[in-house]
Design goal:
Keywords: Membrane, Transmembrane, Transmembrane helix
Strand content: under 5%
Number of strands: 0
Distance between the termini: 10 Å
Radius of gyration: 16 Å
Order of helices and strands: HH
Length: about 70
């Protein structure tokens, strides 16, 4: 298996892990088991924005790395 393909698989798993963490946190706030400092709606909005940014950065860095590796021939 090519290194670029392995990196793509790791990228997919890391995105799925981040999405799972986001779902767990939001469901915890909605159920009341996690208590935010402010209102739950504000906490969910802030968390969604932050996790979306993190997932976007991870995806962008990962895809650029995959394209650079494929261009090099790996």
């Amino acid at each position: 298996m090519k290194p670029s393909t392995r990196l793509l698989i790791v990228l997919l798993f890391s995105e799925a892990l981040l999405a799972g963490i986001w779902i767990w946190l939001v469901s915890g706030i909605q159920s009341g088991s996690l208590k935010p400092a402010g209102t739950p709606a504000e906490a969910i909005a802030t968390m969604s924005s932050t996790m979306g940014t993190v997932m976007g950065v991870v995806a962008a860095v990962g895809l650029v790395s995959v394209f650079l590796m494929r261009r090099k021939g790996n």
